[in-house]
Amino acid sequence: MPTDISPERDLSGRFRAYRKIGEGTYGVVYKAVHVRDNVQCALKMIRTDRDEEGIPSTCLREISCIKDLQHDNIVTLFDIIYANSKLYMVFEFIDQDLKNLMDMLDPVDMMLPQEYVKSFMWQLLSALSYCHLRRIVHRDLKPQNILVSNSGIVKIADFGLARNFSFPSRNYTHEVVTLWYRPPEILLGSQRYSTSLDMWSLGCIFSEIASTKPLFPGECEISQLFKIFEIIGTPNTRNWPGVAEYPHFKSVFPQWSFNLNKLAELSCLTGHGLDILREILRYPPEHRLTAKGALSHRYFLHNEFTQNRPSVAKLKEEIDQRMRSRRRTNRTASPNDHIF
Ligand SMILES: Nc1ncnc2c1ncn2[C@@H]1O[C@H](COP(=O)(O)OP(=O)(O)OP(=O)(O)O)[C@@H](O)[C@H]1O
Ligand SMILES: [Mg+2]
Fold it and tell me: In 1, 115, 149, 323, which residue has its Cα 20 to 30 A from 27's Cα atom?
């Protein structure tokens, strides 16, 4: 464990106004301003288990590849700094992550309007299609790893990073890493990481942004599998040839059949939206809709939102207004409270 988790000591002079904005599996993220260029950035300090020996060169090489990923919907990596046996990644700063945005909706009982759901999905699929074409798998897609600017641009963070590490069960601060977006083949013990892995995670995220509720909120690996089975059905050699070969597959798993009504109810999706979700959440990884395939799905037929992204700043104003009117209602209601 590193003893000093502040970058102040190593990077003094290069950045100012550090503020911790996040903590994840691989380290701590700070908001800072780059002194020379005077631009806001997110400074990510990478923890490695081999701090004393430095960072393995293969890892550095892999991380350098992220620099070549240039896409509107992938967070830009400005720089990589190696100081005092620690690795710092300097990213463009984005206003909030998707989890923050969904948490804002929750107290006002508001769902993300349809045009936002569609626009977010389109942007996420564009980024995935770009990376998958280059055989780069994210492996850890989740709302916290998706950043959203106030102007409505969605950007995936941490691309290519996860493949340097095994699937972690605990993060930097020893919190349990979420399993909610993990595909069934990985839960069943597969060691092959294909691009279809990201599509499963994206399917779960699609349902979550449409309904503001996680689709499969499992508590441990077996409960995660059963949450999936309850909706998609227990896999068998008919709906998933080869499933019995996975190390953790058991023929005695409880039996559920595919429940479309439940999927529709949980995801709050209908028509083409529900259809695309079904095609993404297919068991055999090779039968899952690809990012490229999904972009030409009927769901995106009238894709006027590709030019006109709905504004997140406007959405936040609406949330704020609802919050204020809710507080007003509560205040006017309270004087009567002591009559009873
Ligand atoms: N470029 C950025 N701009 C603004 N905020 C960011 C940026 N990058 C990360 N964050 C914030 O910091 C949090 C943690 O960062 P990040 O996800 O990159 O850490 P991590 O170590 O990769 O963790 P995990 O493996 O859980 O994703 C994010 O959820 C997000 O809220
Ligand atoms: Mg992350």
Answer: 149
Dihedral of CA 91/93/95/100: which sign?
positive
Whether 51 is catalytic? no
Atom of ligand 1 nearest to the CA of 172: 21
Q: Give the residue-averaged pLDDT of 18-34.
A: 84
Q: Please give the share of the chain, as a percent, with pLDDT higher than 70.
A: 84
Q: Is 99 annotated as a binding residue?
A: no
Lowest mean pLDDT among 159-168, 187-196, 278-287: 159-168
Locate the ligand 1 atom nearest the alpha carbon of residue 27 and give its number: 21
Q: What is the CATH number of the domain that holds 54?
A: 3.30.200.20
149 vs 35, higher pLDDT? 149
144 close to ligand 1 (CB < 6 Angstrom): yes
Same domain, 260 and 189: yes
Mean pLDDT score of the chain: 87
Q: What strands, in cross-sheet order, belong to the sheet with 96-97?
A: 96-97, 146-148, 154-156
Residues 65 and 120 in one domain: no
Domain membership of residue 184 as a residue range: 96-315
Query: Exposure of 136 by Cβ count < 10 A (0-12 exposed, 13-18 middle, 19+ buried)?
Result: buried
* Across 38-47, 214-223, 274-283, 329-338, least confident range: 329-338
For 175: left if phi > 0, alpha if psi spans -120 to 50, otherwise beta; the answer is beta
**Among protein residues, the one whose CA lies closest to atom 29 of ligand 1:** 144
Assess if residue 336 is contained within a domain: no
Can you give the CATH number for the domain in which 195 is found? 1.10.510.10
Atom 7, ligand 1: residue with shortest CA distance? 42
Place of tokens 């945005």: 101
* C-beta separation of 66 from 159 below 8 A: yes
If you average pLDDT over residues 228-233, what whole number do you get? 98
